[in-house]
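Before the break, one more example. Copy the sequence into your notebook; we will annotate it together after we see the structure.
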Amino acid sequence: MATRSGDQNPDIPIEEEGAPSHGVKRERGHSEAGNEATVDIDPDEPSKKKVGAPASSMCHMSPMSSSLMSIATEPMGHHPNLPMGYGTMLPLGGRMQLMNSVTQPRVNIAGSNNLVIICSDVQSTGSVPRATSSFPGGVRSQHSASLEVVQERVRSQHSASLEELKQKLNHHLKIKYSRLTKQVQPIPFLKDKHSIDKVFTEVGINYMPAGDDTTWQKLESHHDIPTGTIGQSRVQIIEGDAGYGKSMMSLRMVHDWCTCDSRSPLNNVDILIRLNLRQLGGSKSIYEAIVKCLLPLDSSIKESDVEQLLRDEDIRTLVLFDAYDEYPDKDEEGNFVSRILEENLLQHVKVILTTRSSCIPEGCDRLTAGRIKLTGFDDHAREEYVRGVVTGGDEEATKKIVTQFNTNSILADICQSPLFSVIYAHSAHKAELKLDFGSVTEFFGYLMHCFHDHEDNKPQTKATAEEQAKFQEFRDNHDELDKLSYGALSANNQQQTWDKDKFVTEVGEEFYKRHIDIGILVAEEVMNRNYPKQPNPYKTEVRFFHKLSCEWYAAHHLVKRLRSLPSSVPENLVDLMNPSDLQHVYRFACGLDPIVTPRVLDLLKQKKDCDSLAVLCALEQKDKAGDVLDTVRDLVSRDVLISGDHSRLLQRTTIELVQRACQHEIPVPCLRLENCFKRFDVTNSGIVLESDFRLANMKTVRVLHTKHWYTGGEITRDELLGLLQTCEGLTKLRVDSSRFLLPLSIPPETIPPALRRRNINILYDRQRGLVYRLSFEHGQWEIHDQRADQLFRVYISQGDRQLEQEWCIQELKIAAEAGVEINFLGLFESFNTVADNSQSIILTSGRTIPVLHTLLLLGIQGSNINQEMFIKILSYVKECPQMTTLRFSSCEVPIEVDPRQIPLLLKRRGLSVEYNRGNGLVFHLGFEHGQWKIHSQRAGRSFKIMINQWDSQLEQEWCIQGLKTAAEAGVTISALILVGTFNTVADNSQSIILTSSRTIPVLQTLQMLWIEGTNINQEMFIKILSYVKECPQMTRLR
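Here is what the structure looks like once it is written out:
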């Protein structure tokens, strides 16, 4: 390694030859071995520094010199094993020079060992201990053989310029975003533009955190969305059907950031990047996309500048990708969006992505990404929009429009879509008449007519008779546009944009101009994927104002194709156009031409999970499909599903289908209710769903199967019996849920004789591996089936409902009596004590768990256990002959156990008693001496111990015991942190004495000692170093 010319000692290597010294005085002293130890004193805590703050000063003292030696500090990240903290003060005095940690070159001192001593939160006036020649000789001889200067992460010299660059970028972004958020056009044909804060209305929002595939949480506002900056997951996906407000919400988030809305969590974001992915076809990097799409042409910011900002982990950046389902390159391997989502690029950057529910990126599953589902407008949201945007607060006009929603149930369900709701409200207000629609096709047909009629009725655009004839021709004949739309949606990589020149060649100049003028088509400038082969980096593309318009015209072409085909539909036709993503194409087709409906239904039969769509398609015929009993019979011949994820329109339509089948005595083999069953109304004899829709007539339903993954609740004994009696043809009822509870039992005498004779199979799957069956003879639950692929585990928490705890205990009893292995019983803060006769565990709720002869593992968490209770638990365990493991976690247990009190039977049985303290180590109780030993170390987890002044006596003793055990076993102790607990070092340097008088011996495997919140004088400082001398693996003293 090169050395710096002019240095007195050529043996000291440097990081880089020729680095400037910046005129800072450098002095060195030498130990007997000729090497040096270092003391670094950093006045600022790195985690407290802000972007753009001046570089902090760092002091460095050499134990071989009474003066100061300069050091350099290249920026370095927080050490993974170092928790952050500060608060220790060293004494005044000494000739200590403050040095700027940015301007000094880095010096490495060769050797085999490292020791760094760091003091945080020292004032810049130099209140640090005197640089001294009184360092313990052992520090010189033992540690100084090889010492490397390590420094805190600090701002580099260009921090000020980086801050300036960030401010310049944000200035450009806010100008761009301001223009976007002030030109919102709720309905294209009205041409009215509004600010996003004037037209944005909250839609229904459900949130599912990453790693949780069972629980949807209802959010009150978009402000409640965990944006990644405050949420646990780096990626959040906003999903919803077409027209449900995904892009509007992304614009509202941008507006909140630009205006520093106090309610928004985005106030924590330094840089917010919003990119419309539809415009980024051919873009090779996010830096290129930002420069070309968001910055003005004369901006001095280059791609390399943007990259520097986004790569800086201290700058909190949020990237908002809008319209992933319309991203041209989403299926291209290695596109920059996929690399960011999959953490192969900009791993520290938070991401929000909007997309249709049917187009979730493959790299984002429920384990890695939070999910935000938009559920549309409810009655309150519709009324709020009408009053605030449409009528301007006119209560009479507002009431008139809202009444139309409320009196037409089909219209209200259609207008769950915010887009449809907005269009209807504005149209009804302008027309001042009542509009009645019975299907989505009728509604959208009216919308398309509005585009044409509104332009024609403008006085300033009054057309001549010849022009009107031509415009009418364009309205009635759009074959070329139909064909282009169908081709765009049936391609593997859906692309609903066209090059302007090519598009005009296909449809004609006049046709193109007319549809641009009325708002059905939109022309926008996008990046040119053929640049620089073509001279212009941008090009003009044509798209529909909304994807639903593309589906409308594609449906016209689908009708033509189906009419031209023979009676049987080719199998490959459905593969060309994915029904789950393009449901409106099929619904529009059925509404446009009832003759093709049977063919559409045949086509959907070829595709999996399209039964719900088939129901919607049949009902698009308005007053015709309902009378075609063959269609109803065909639709209910397969499982009929009503889901909580379904729209209100789909739920209502499916209910109508089931009711019509039952009314005409058509058997319904299986009705599945998923996450939507709320209760059974005994008074009115019907099922009430979460949406408050009702299922009353179910006399021909043979199997009723309900699943509850997201919702809880319970059904009482009377409700269960009422449900069974209402469903006259029911042969089987199955409930799958760990949250939805059925009665613990039903007294046989309460079961009507007619119900007993039907011998209905009632099954209950609690999602633990066992399926129970209710016996009408005894009124009790029995094991019906056991899944071989699932272990039987039961968890009882203190916060569980009363019935939930009773069900858990009942399951344990049933399993034990049937000889089924209970793989795990976990008691989370619910353990209280053991009965005096050792025959039961008593919970905090007062309920008891008897001895379980098939229990294998008992886990107790969050309940402190003293010596007496520990022995009582062992006595209970002794009565459970198959138990192999007793495990404690997140609680206090005795630091040692009297081995004479441990039942001899447990010693012979080989029971394993484990204790997980949550610090990386799991301890095992040795029965011979009653001492805890290290059982295992969690992979990837470093072993750290923190001793706080507010810790209990037992907690401190356990910390010290853990340190001793780890050191004796050769386990590396990455950090020992003493927070307000350090008192002194023993005179023989063999132990640290805490404020509680407890002692910590020399730890042979300790790497870092951190003392916080204790003032250190000169004498104590040297005594600490003497202790450090005895710890051969210690590399850092903080």
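Residues 1-113, 120-135, 138-157 have pLDDT under 50 and may be disordered. The radius of gyration is 36 Å. Try to locate both features in your own notes.
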